[in-house]
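Table 4 source record.
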Amino acid sequence: MYQIKLEKDDFLRFMLFTASKSKTIKAKRIRSWIIITVLFLCLGLIFLSKEDKLVSYYFLIVAGLNIFFYPFYNRWRYKKYYESHIKENYKNRIGVTSQVEFVDEYIISKDYSGEEKLRLTEISFIYEIKDDLFIRMKNGGTIVVPSKMADYEGFKSELAKVTENLGIIWNVELNWKWK
């Protein structure tokens, strides 16, 4: 039996990792970057055509700065959004210890709220980053396993052993960073 205690940073890494893998969120981030840059460029050109050079230069400079600095702002904004989401919606799960064990063809997870029994065949894929292991289920749920837990390597080896014949994809991205 393994003891898993999730902290705020584990939930944050999970949400940011999930967002970084979502095609929809990637497209939304790029689209907002382009729209805002084009908006400032258009405003600059409009004021340039009206011979208001000072305001025009302002918008053109802001558009130029936006091209380089908007990705940093957008990354920070998403992180702040997820931090407030976690604070509001996961406050009762932060710091709570749950017990996970592998029994026959199941993963059994127990915490103060109850017990969950998941078939190993319901695992769709496993992602491993430097700080966490994400076990994604076919129903959309995810088990987050922090690397700082006691016997993390034992957990990983047992998980690999029980899932080796199931054809589950195990993606290792130890250099993943939120960008």
